[in-house]
Write a structure and sequence with these properties.
It contains seven helices and ten strands. The strands form two sheets. Strands 1, 2, 3, 4, 5, 6, 9 and 10 form an eight-stranded mixed β-sheet that branches. A two-stranded antiparallel sheet has the order 7-8. Helix 2 packs across helix 6 and helix 3 packs parallel to helix 4. It starts with 8 loop residues before the first helix and ends in a 6-residue tail after the last helix.
Length: 221
């Protein structure tokens, strides 16, 4: 089912001004370095300008026993709410767990993007569609005889990170960070404060200040 109580659009837009390194720093500070919140860097964006910001709608896939293919994933694309990020777990690198048709439908429905811990095909077509996708590998093989969609809207592990429905998924060219739903607003407040400090540091560096001089006043270095 779609997530109840989605974030207000203005909160999402405030996050959209940030970048993933800042989100990871905030999670390190507020949640702890030992609680890994960034995905395996092998999961890359379809294009370097790709950026996604939205709450997770999760899908769990597995090697086929029933041969149902992506039927359950297409169902997830119908029930996820506009603005959500579909997160596909399963880790099947040699199988296309995402493709053009899913991208067309998701873009029409206003889905923010997809993160796929596995293969993706039809990549040139997805680029033409302009739907944001992060994926692990290129894979030409059809999912229909090779994959079952086990469930959606459940906790999954994707890229080495536990993702629960409603968590915030933030991705750009540097990688993907997942913010627990309960920490979203705290992380945003930390990021906005640190972003303001970083801009002051940039200005000081451009004015000729050394790192030593700046470190006396700021902790962002």
């Amino acid at each position: 089912m779609a997530i109840a109580g989605l974030l207000e659009p203005q909160v999402v837009e405030r996050f959209r001004r940030m970048y993933v390194g800042l989100i990871v720093d905030a999670c390190d500070h507020l949640i702890g370095v030992s609680s890994r919140r960034f995905m395996d860097p092998a999961i890359r964006p379809i294009h370097k300008a790709t950026k996604i910001v939205g709450q997770a709608y999760t899908v769990l896939q597995a090697p086929a026993r029933r041969g149902t293919g992506l039927a359950g994933t297409f169902e997830a694309a119908e029930v996820a709410s506009p603005g959500q990020v579909i997160v596909v777990a399963g880790g099947m690198d040699e199988v296309a767990m995402w493709g053009e048709m899913l991208s067309i439908r998701c873009k029409y429905r206003g889905i923010e993007g997809a993160v796929v811990d596995g293969g993706c095909r039809d990549v040139p077509f997805i680029e033409d569609i302009g739907f944001p996708v992060f994926f692990r590998t290129f894979a030409p093989t059809s999912a229909q005889p090779r994959v079952d969609t086990i469930a959606h809207g459940v906790p999954v592990e994707c890229g080495g990170v536990l993702v629960e429905p409603g968590d915030l998924v933030f991705g750009d060219v540097d990688g993907i960070c997942v913010v627990p739903r309960s920490q979203i607003l705290d992380v945003l407040a930390f990021c906005e404060e640190k972003a303001a400090e970083e801009e002051e540091v940039r200005n000081r560096l451009r004015s000729g200040n050394s790192f030593y001089e700046i470190s006396k006043d700021f902790k962002v270095l």
